[in-house]
């Protein structure tokens, strides 16, 4: 895991989670880790629990989020794109 911390391009969240796990492996308490990394104790507990219940990848990475529902269906989206890409009517700039 130390190679993750030394890599050049990692998200800040992933890097912070790696630091949490490294300090936990060194025997630091949840309170000490939270204070050192300026995160809440609940964050430290959650990351440690995800590591114990799952694995390293599960602790470092975020789960997929469902996202918002689509506002347009395929036909409506095609119409919108066609309208936006077509030439404007006479007397209009857009």
Structural descriptors:
single chain; 94 residues; mainly alpha; 6 helices; elongated
Outline the structure in words.
It is a single chain. With 94 residues, the chain is mainly alpha-helical. It has a domain at 8-60. It has helices at residues 2-6, 12-25, 30-37, 41-53, 56-60, 74-85. The radius of gyration is 23 Å and the shape is elongated. 10% of the residues are buried.
Break the fold down into its secondary structure elements and pairings.
Elements: H1 2-6, H2 12-25, H3 30-37, H4 41-53, H5 56-60, H6 74-85
Largest sheet: none
Distance between the termini: 54 Å
Name the beta content range: under 5%
- Can you count the beta strands? 0
Mean pLDDT: 85
The number of helices is 6
Order of helices and strands: HHHHHH
Helix content: 55-70%
Rg from C-alpha positions? 23 Å
Low-confidence parts: none
Shape: elongated
Estimated structural class: mainly alpha
């Amino acid at each position: 895991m130390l190679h993750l911390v030394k890599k050049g391009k990692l998200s800040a969240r992933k890097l912070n989670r790696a630091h949490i796990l490294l300090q936990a492996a060194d025997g630091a308490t949840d309170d000490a880790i939270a204070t050192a990394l300026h995160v809440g104790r609940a964050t430290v507990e959650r990351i440690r629990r995800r590591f114990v219940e799952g694995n390293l990848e599960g602790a470092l990475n975020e789960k997929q989020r469902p996202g918002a529902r689509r506002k347009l269906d395929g036909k409506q989206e095609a119409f919108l794109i066609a309208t936006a890409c077509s030439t404007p009517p006479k007397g209009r700039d857009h």
